[in-house]
Amino acid sequence: MKILAGMISALSLAGASHAATVLYTQNFEAPDIPAFNAFAGPDASYTSVNSIYNNQPAGFSFAQQYTVETLRVGGNQAWGGAGFVDGQGTAGNYVISMLSHANDDLLGLSFNVGAYRFLNFQLDVSSIDLNFWGGPFVASGGQAPTFKLSLWDNPGGANGLGGGTLLASATITGQASPAPNRFNWTNHVVGLDATGNTNGNVTLVIDELSGGYAALDNFRIVASDVSGDVGLPEPTALSLLGLGLLGLGRARGWQRSR
User: Fold this and answer.
1) 145 vs 137: CA distance, rounded Å
2) Residues 219-242, buried b or exposed e (16+ Cβ, 10 A)?
3) For 80-125, what is each residue's pLDDT tens digit?
4) Residue 250: which residues within 8 A CB-CB, separation 6 or more?
5) What's the rounded Cα separation, in Å, for the pair 8 and 5?
6) What is the 3-state secondary structure (H, E, C) of the chain?
7) Cα–chain-centroid distance for residue 246?
8) Mean pLDDT to the nearest integer, 198-211
9) CA distance 73 to 161
10) d(CA 28, CA 71)
11) pTM (2 decimals)?
12) Closest by alpha carbon to 206, among 98, 134, 76?
């Protein structure tokens, strides 16, 4: 028991979580189906994100510019019946997507970080393409998508797409997909420094800079004093626990064999 207690103590130190507040999580798996179908094409809808994901969670609203679409994964309408294919099992049944050109699609999410220094954003991104609504949009042979994530001061607290004082920004780049209808997901964690905000209210704006067309999924947004802290156990800490328990089991087996 002393050995186990020691391991738990070590684990606590190794994986100690800094103070953090989860502001938002969204995997886009609970769309309003009638809203999705209102302006649906082949396995996709250009109904506004607010209409499809209204009030998730209660009181939350997006801001968007132009058409941030929602795609149905695993359907049989897009790409001649092949649909959008997710061999990695990352997407679930629905994702959102946007253009890097033709229209400057933007998505804005507003929060209050309180006295925390960082707004940390974890998400999955993937190149994907459309064979309708003016597509294809991705260069032949595939193209990695690049996104700019910008954090703006938002003293009035209203939903919007930024403006005024830019607090921080970062660029993330995914990977080209092997086929225009097949996702190739990469996971990213970005720490945006909110220092200098007026009263804690900030707006996060997502803009695809290049890549033609791309999808986003599995948002996790956390306010923390540590850059990149998304409020999850550190893998190294979990590894320590696993190794410790394995060692404890071997030690007990050795003692019994004596």
Assistant:
1) 12
2) bbbbbbebeebbbeeeeebeebbe
3) 999 999 999 999 999 999 999 888 999 999 999 999 999 999 999 9
4) none
5) 5
6) CHHHHHHHHHHHHHCCCCCEEEEEEECCCCCCHHHHHHCEECCEECCCHHHHCCCCCCCCCEEEECCCEEEECCCCCCHHHCCCECCCCCCCCEEEEEECCCCCCEEEEEEECCCCCEEEEEEEEEECCCCCCCCCCCCCCCCCCEEEEEEEECCCCCCCCCCCCEEEEEEEECCCCCCCCECCCEEEEEEEECCCCCCCEEEEEEEEEECCEEEEEEEEEEEECCCCCCCCCCHHHHHHHHHHHHHHHHHHHHHHHC
7) 34
8) 98
9) 28
10) 10
11) 0.86
12) 98
pLDDT at 10: 38
- CA atoms of 13 and 34, how far apart (whole Å): 49
Nearest to 227 by CA among 179, 181, 183, 195: 195
Q: Express each pLDDT in 38-92 by its tens digit.
A: 999 999 999 999 999 999 999 999 999 999 999 999 999 999 999 999 999 999 9
